[in-house]
Design a protein that fits this description.
Blueprint: H1 9-21, H2 25-46, E1 55-57, H3 62-66, E2 73-75, E3 78-80, E4 84-91, H4 98-101, H5 103-114, E5 121-124, E6 129-132, E7 138-146, E8 153-156, E9 162-165, H6 167-182, H7 190-204, H8 219-233, H9 239-255, H10 293-318, H11 322-333, H12 335-339
Parallel strand pairs: 4-7
Antiparallel strand pairs: 1-4, 2-3, 5-6, 6-7, 7-8, 8-9
Helix pairs in contact: 2-5, 7-8, 8-9, 9-10, 10-11
Length: 342
Amino acid sequence: MSELTTRSVLHKRITTFVDWIKPELSKREEIKERANKVREKIKNKAESDKYNLVVVSTPNAGSFTTKTGLRRHFRGDAEVEGLDVDLPFVIQDNQDGYALFNLLEVFHRIVDDCFPSDNVKIERTKSSIKIKFPDKVNLDIVPMLEGDNIDEQIIIRSTGEKIHTSVKKHVDFIKKRTNASNNEAGRVKYNECLRLFKWWRDTQANDSYWLGGDDSPASFLINLLTAKAFDELSVRKTYAETLSNWFGYLAHLVKNKEPILFSDYNNPTRDYYIWSVIDPVNPDNNIVKNWSSSKIDELAGWLENGRDNWNRIIGYDLEGEDTKSIEELIKIFGNSFKNHSE
């Protein structure tokens, strides 16, 4: 592995693929402008006499802000990831009325009022209202209640569960690691490796039993897994070395159900669930608390297979077996790697 160089065919192929899976730069400003217009439109409607809400803030959030999102692509017959933008709306919690106890329902009505056209599809998720535009750009409207200070919010799920969070701290959590890798010499950066992990997740979910479809590991979990790997192992001079190390490390953690904890904002301790991946902002939020042993084992299997794939990929590259190397890379990233790595 130590013989790999940035001049190798393998590194050049992965670098080309990394650049392709990013959302197209030409669309970023256009999407940003649209998001700002939608934000203003919904804010005005929420604060109108009809709804009488007070919008405290609309912070920037999600993969669009942290530059960890993917271009839109297909997984089976379903479109996934891509140019999705999270738009949080933080609402003042100064009353006990219907609106604040039914925030998702109220915002569903607000979005319906703002976008009555049949060309725009509106869907309700467990914690957001998704607006799907005809050009495949999606905006996730995420209503929240204000917390105890300006950087804290409360998400109200459709189940009634309330989760304390901080949009700013979650964004800073990712940016801190990207900035740290930017200070390292070389091409390999944390946020690009996170993108590769998301693409890998979508590819593996195609044929999975427990982690397929809507049960695929959430991007938040992928964020935390890769953050843990980066904290412990940093990045190497090539993508292959970095990802080989990360997959091996994470396969060990998940297989042994070792807790994944962070000390960025607090000092959490392990809880008593089967496995613990603790939200770095909220130590009471174990994001895998509802996972069964079967789901955990399947994720461990994904990672173990990925670890073995990377070992073969590196071996084939060092032996000059480019065709065999690509065959293994397709197992990780799907056929899109073959078509977009030249």
